[in-house]
Amino acid sequence: MSENTLIDDDFVAAVRRDMLKFAQLQLRDAALAEDAVQEALLAALAGGRSFAGRSALKTWVFSILRNKIVDLIRAQGRTTNVSALGDDDAALDASFDALFKTNAHWRPENRPFGWGDPEESLREERFWAVFEICLNHLPERTARVFMMREFLELETDEVCRELGITISHCNVILHRARHGLRRCLETSWFAPGEKPC
Amino acid sequence: MLTCKEATRMMSEAQDRPLSVGERLQLQMHLAMCRGCRNFRVQMDFLRTACRRYLGRRGSEENDSRMP
After folding, report:
1. Residue range(s) defining the domain that contains residue B36
2. What is the pLDDT of residues A47-97, one digit of tens each?
3. How far is A43 from chain B (nearest CA, A)?
4. ipTM tops 0.85
């Protein structure tokens, strides 16, 4: 397949839309996301590489975008005060504490239940819509640390270094994010009995 | 003896660093007795899988058929 048939306007538009969504989730800044996507697309298309198919091309474009996002985060890292605890973070912490009895064991009604075969969910389009909503629902700074760790796959000590926070603070933030995401998925997707039509 | 709350913190940290032998032992003892925390642990692994898949999926899903 020649590159000309791979890269038509419709394909670029579709990839661009997916990239923008991803970049905005990471950067939470529409203009910055727009720039990153534009640069990544240009770099990918100017590379003159040939690809086995659209899927391979898309993977390549996204790997360029991921590197751009890491660079941007490194550049702007210390300018945001990630250690400030927002109201939404405090609310998330309170919602975590509320899961436990005073002796710090689970309240029976909040005890995590089995999610069946969650792998099956990963194949469902609607699951990913819920997943994205839950991600967007995390407090901004908390989400940022979590995404650096889980999406950009930086090691925890690098995340801490970039953001100028201690490892133990980083652990607290990651735990908060995982709690938020877990609870959101549990109540919005895995809750037994109610399946949206 | 770990509380469930402490166990969840340890299970979150286990996603980011290797636990010490002592921590692993404490956690294992707790998990042996606590179904809720066993579920929690499986769910932590699931979150990691989902995040990896999210990016891979955005990056490589074959959705040519949905495109005009």
Report:
1. 4-55
2. 666 666 776 777 788 888 988 988 887 777 554 555 567 788 889 999 999
3. 16
4. no
